[in-house]
Amino acid sequence: MANLLEVQQATKQFGSFTALQNVSIQVPKGSIFGLLGPNGAGKTTLIRIINQITLPDQGSVFLDNEPLKPEHIKDIGYLPEERGLYKSMKVGEQALYLAQLKGLSKKEAKERLKYWFDKFDITHWWDKKIQELSKGMAQKVQFIVTVLHRPKLLIFDEPFSGFDPINANVIKDEILQLRDEGATVIFSTHRMESVEELCDHIALINKSQKILEGKLSDIKRAYKSNTFEVGLLTDDHQSLFSTLNNKFSVAPADFKTIDDQLKLKITLDNTMSSNDMLRYLSEKAQVLRFNEVIPSVNEIFIKTITENE
Amino acid sequence: MSNLKLIIKREFIARVRNKTFVVMTFLSPLIFVGMIGLITWLTTLNKDEIREIAIVDETGSFEPYFKSSKGISYIDYTNLPLNDAKDSVVIKDLYGLLYIPGNTSNKELEKSIQFYADEAPNIDILQQIEKIISEELTHQNFKKKGVDIAVIESSKAKVDIQIENFLGEKTSKISSYVKMFFGGLAGYLLLMFVVIYGNMVMRSVIEEKTSRIIEVIISSVKPVQLMIGKILGTTLAGVLQFFIWVIIGGVLLFIASFYLGIDVQPTTPGQIPQDELMEQSQLILQDVLNLPLISLVVLFLVYFIGGYFLYSSIYAAIGAAVDSETDSQQFMLPIIVPLMLAFYVGVFAVIENPHGTISTVFSMIPLTSPIVMLMRVPFGVDWWQILISIVILIASIWFMVMFAAKIYRIGILMYGKKPSYKEIFKWLKY
């Protein structure tokens, strides 16, 4: 799959502070790319470099295999984390202005705005000032403005903050639809469950360096430890536990059940397959639960960052 | 439409729609004219008051020369003894009592005339009284020495020097006042414009920062573009406001002068007899027309726009560096000091000697040149001096805009920090 965006060896310093050090990322076309990292890791700086707000000291950025140039501004839509609109300007005028700055003609911008305003059912907001809207309402306007010029690359920094669960869902569906229509999305957030839900690729940045990047499924495969969660129905917990403990590496597990089960996490070495283990367990007790433990993004995040310290 | 045009348009509309702008635009001329009207009215009130002055003239030879006029009426108290006269003046609450003692030589009399009053009398009235007595005393002295007064009167001469420049154009004596007036007006307008509209630019930058829209905007346009668009848009709003002020102010002044009978002509200093006044005011008009009007207007625009650009880029940079208007105070010094310096140099040095070293030097230094040069222009400045000054100004505008843009570019993305001068200088290196 071709990459829409490639950042190569980007380095940025502010005085003596290094915000980014030799960071490279590759964002495949049509993907939703999660850009993760703790606070202050350098995500915003990287995003600003992609948006040509700041220039990297070293390194280069390619969009669609071309070195990044001012004309590319039209191809990028950016929803910053620190977002805002002119408070005393009317919603419609403001949206038109921002759309025109992105190169849309007034007529075109009006048509597309009508479409989006109808879709979100906010047409009656057109002549309201931003200061009359609630935070969530203003966010909706901002989302529309970000995607209105149909950019190839969309960058969302914490897009769900400020939304109630229902509206967050609406926005999530819109993001997925934009992806399906061919846009590539870079998604920066601290909400790991939405990364889990949306992203197919991720990159992890910590202390101005990239420490992990790849397809989410590949990363999970690499991070899984061949561990299985099992729930066994038996009369004698004690003896079953010691039998199993002799054969496998076993740890207690915790999950909710309705009856009294022996709950364990069993990690396999390479000598035995999961099928063999299941067969063995079924001889010893009634198997009520058997599933592979796949690390969540949250666990991968915490593990990688702490190992990196 | 190009982005710069879009930004200029938005900034212009944002300024013009602002309620304060609308109120200021239409209220200021009213207040201005109202003040002028009030002051004129108060002065006429003062003039209507008649001051009654009692005279005790023991010599009897001066009293006939005191003729009551519009503001002063003289009452003869000579038949009363001095003490009774004093009491009477106090009881009747008159303005004062003039006492001319008798039985003295003319020489002694010069020092022994008294004026009794509650408070120090008006200097004009005193001078008038002194003049009347001196004249009569002089006449008496002439008579004593056997000189014929008629001969003296007929041989008195009055010289009126006619001023003409080498091109043969006549000018009035107050020609330099006319030039000062125009120069000072231009300099003052620029000063006001810079402070009012520079602040507007700064406030609008701060607004973009606090409302956090800045990051959205600069992901679409270059910060320099945004800054220049902002300055230009605000300039247009300012020019519009001035235009409206001039029109409203003109109309109101016309109406006011019509109703109140105020003489709008600039008052001429010095005592010029009535018939000469006509001639003088024609000469003043001539003076105004003789000013290099076209170059004055062109240079006014050049320095006005140049000076404004120079200062508002500093204002924009300050706005970008701070988070709120209160924080901006510490950075106001680089604006206020040169502005004030320029204005005082203009008021003191230029009027004293428009082509002196101080005036010339300050009309070259970029931060002071717009105001000082505008004040010098009516006096006629060599074209090469203007050229050098403009070249320096343009170069420094370019330099200042780049400099400000750098601070602006970094500053607009810095939140929550109150930067020091030191930190801002560090930004220049990023």
TrEMBL record, chain A:
Belongs to the ABC transporter superfamily. It comes from the Bacteria. It holds the Pfam family DrrA1-3_C. Gene3D superfamilies: P-loop containing nucleotide triphosphate hydrolases. This is ABC transporter ATP-binding protein. CDD domains: ABC_putative_ATPase. The keyword Nucleus does not apply.
From TrEMBL, chain B:
The keyword Membrane applies. It comes from the Bacteria. Keywords: Cell membrane, Membrane, Transmembrane, Transmembrane helix. InterPro entries: ABC-2_transporter_component, ABC2_TM. One of its GO terms (molecular function) is ABC-type transporter activity. The chain crosses the membrane at residues 21-42, 180-201, 239-262, 288-311, 331-351, 383-408. GO terms for cellular component: plasma membrane. It is found in: Cell membrane. SUPFAM superfamilies: Periplasmic binding protein-like II. Residues 19-405 form the ABC-2 type transporter transmembrane domain. Its main location: membrane. It is a multi-pass membrane protein. Pfam families: ABC2_membrane_3. This is ABC transporter permease.
